[in-house]
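Run: sequence + N-acetylmannosamine-6-phosphate -> complex structure.
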Amino acid sequence: MTASSATIIDRLAGGLVVSCQAYPGEPMRDPRTMAQIARAAVIGGAAGIRLQGLDDIREAADLDVPVIGLWKDGKDGVFITPTLAHARAVADAGADIVAIDGTRRPRPDGLTLAETIAQLRETHDVLVMADCGSLQDALAAEAAGADILGTTLSGYTGERPKTVGPDLELIAQVRAACTAPIMAEGRIHSPADARAARNAGADAVCVGTAITHPATITSWFVAALGEDI
Ligand SMILES: CC(=O)N[C@H](C=O)[C@@H](O)[C@H](O)[C@H](O)COP(=O)(O)O
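>> structure
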């Protein structure tokens, strides 16, 4: 790890990363809008920002916090920065950390996770966050050379139940078995959830929907108003 890589990890330690993503067809799906939300999150104290899509990453070039970039291609199976080519493009767009699918599933380009990380490092000086779905994924991702282990895909790959809040059990399992920094991510919907994720052993916490997806947040309130008391 280079000195600058260590600095980036240090800057995220103990902090909140805000994931700013809008989905295809949604009104806020616009790189400028996502960059504005990212800047607002930084004003609020975000230690890092997670952005999806090459244009969104480029648009946020002026942020002075580390940017975790990814490129979602597809909706099923391996779709988070699924190939080496996607990973290189995310790095070229300016991400400090490239988030890639960190599961043990076959990748579309036929490379293993270890080969992907090694070949990315031959061309780019970037950190790699492995988006994992289970302890087995995290162990394999650490062995493959990932710099950060994310719990991003817990509940989405069939190996773990989709918990109502964050998968605290998985965070604790990864803490006990791995030494790489852990990013708790996925269904962290409140400050209390974020604190619980840290208490379970996460080094940093990434929140998306509960901060940056107003359609979902609105639906939570609407559902609550529709409940009988
Ligand atoms: C599973 C998947 O595709 N996760 C994506 C990864 O980038 C995003 O859709 C999530 O919003 C992000 O992980 C943050 O999680 P949450 O929005 O639950 O705070």
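>> summary
The first strand starts at residue 16 and ends at 20. The two ends are 55 Å apart (CA to CA).
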